[in-house]
What does this fold into?
Amino acid sequence: MSDTPENSPADVSSTARCWALIPCAGSGSRAGLDHPKQYQSLAGRPMVLHTLAAFAAVRRISGILVVVAAGDSFFSIHKGDYRVADCGGATRAESVANGLNILREQGASGSDWVLVHDAARCLITPAQINLLMDACAADPVGGLLALPLADTLKCVLDARVMATLQRHDKWLAQTPQMFRIDLLRRALGHAGPEMTDESSAVESIGLQPLVVNGSAQNFKVTYPEDFALAQALLQGRSAGGDDSDNRWTTVGEGR
Ligand code: C5P
It folds into this structure.
């Protein structure tokens, strides 16, 4: 199927389905663990299962595809209401591109939406996913969750500040990022394997994704000190400290 002419709101079909694609094939080398960070146990279960539970709680998502590295056996014992493809690539962009091909092969339409979300952003909530979906549903391009930069931004070389950048127009890109499947395939093909998010690829073909306010809690667990913070937040939610979380304690019931 050819791409929709993406600059016209009239192209937005109300029958388009939404899929979630979770790239989960990274080694997480910055985390300092001897296994991929997305499988580290946090608040009683592996990080990626928290991520998947949030998506499973969003009923208007038609299906979830997890992309893992070849030979990864994690999901052979952690089964749930999601499909797993061992088509991970050398970079995140390659893993996403391979996952998009699988979605198409398995019946998704090129004009369906896909929400791409890092396995390692385990603090995402159904409310934030729904916020992005509501904002993008009628958008001709699609968009992403992001956070306005709070701190002052420095360019640094060899531990010396080279410049201070204006921050008023700077945002930190998060995931999910939501685009039409074939638009994103074309964008990733154009941008190449080094893009670190989907928006960069879509920008590279001349489009301007919509930015939707995310949450500071939706950080990507990356460095060793991030695990304790993520665990404390997850434990606070399951103890009832955040009642918006109580709806998705198990993965994938009733889709
Ligand atoms: O490495 P980074 O933290 O940027 O990875 C973001 C997400 O992309 C993680 O969920 C990771 O598992 C995934 N990834 C992937 N394939 C790669 C590299 C990263 O699916 N080759």
Q: What stands out?
A: Residues 1-12, 243-250 have pLDDT under 50 and may be disordered. Residues 23-26, 38, 67, 88-92, 95, 118-120, 220, 222 surround cytidine-5'-monophosphate (CB under 6 Å). The first strand starts at residue 18 and ends at 23.
